[in-house]
UniProtKB/TrEMBL annotation:
This is Crp/Fnr family transcriptional regulator. Coiled coil: none annotated. PROSITE patterns: HTH_CRP_2. Gene3D superfamilies: Jelly Rolls (2.60.120.10).
Length: 211
């Protein structure tokens, strides 16, 4: 589907889950005053829409930020798959907890850290996630969204995002060429971010169950 496509609107009854095969996608919520808040960036490999599985109407909108490829899985056959293969249920449980950890980290970063710490955390997080799916180099990544969308995620205006990225460049933390970013000093970015970059692989205590 092309950029800006609405995969699933907020408030609709869509008893399905989605898997993002390729591209970048946002989960966002429409507020009472008409403003829209991006809640999470989804990258290839992510399961989408799982937070709305427990309610009748979708609580968020899934919108393509780039051209995307998604796979739709109706909840009824997914439920049958869980019944016949309990390991799928375990994977879904662990996936939901990983998403919860990610949202807790983002909440802590946006609530209790400085603007430069928020962007440092976001850049490190994106580099880690893109590296897992083979879409980032050892020190490089491409940011496929604009500064307004970046700002929406970390609670800053586009002007503030641009100012902080320029400060990072001047301080020798990163190099920028349009949407290409090279991280020069990982250690200093980690110190600035305040939030630890977590190893999100399956914990060893669960591996004998899901292997």
């Amino acid at each position: 589907m092309p950029r800006r496509s609405i995969i699933r609107p907020q408030g609709t009854t869509d008893r399905s889950a989605y898997f993002l095969v390729d591209g970048w996608l946002a989960s966002s919520m429409l507020l009472a005053d008409g403003e829209r808040q991006i809640l999470k960036l989804h990258l290839p490999g992510d399961m989408l829409g799982s937070t709305s599985m427990c309610v009748e109407d979708a609580i968020d909108t899934l919108m393509a930020l780039t051209p995307v490829t998604v796979r739709k899985v109706p909840l009824a056959p997914l439920g049958q798959l869980i019944v016949t293969n309990p390991r799928i249920a375990m994977f879904l449980l662990l996936s939901a907890q990983k998403e919860r950890v990610a949202l807790m980290d983002l909440l802590a970063s946006n609530s209790r850290t400085s603007p430069i710490a928020r962007l440092a955390f976001l850049l490190l997080n994106l580099h880690q996630r893109l590296s897992i799916v083979g879409q980032a180099g050892s020190d490089e990544l491409e940011i496929a969204i604009n500064q307004e969308q970046l700002g929406d995620i970390v609670g800053l205006t586009p002007v503030h995002v641009n100012r902080v990225l320029r400060q990072m460049t001047n301080d020798g933390l990163i190099e920028r060429h349009r949407r290409q970013i090279r991280i020069i000093d990982f250690e200093r970015l980690r110190e600035l971010s305040k939030i630890p970059l977590r190893d999100m692989s399956i914990a060893s205590s669960w591996q004998h169950i899901v292997a």
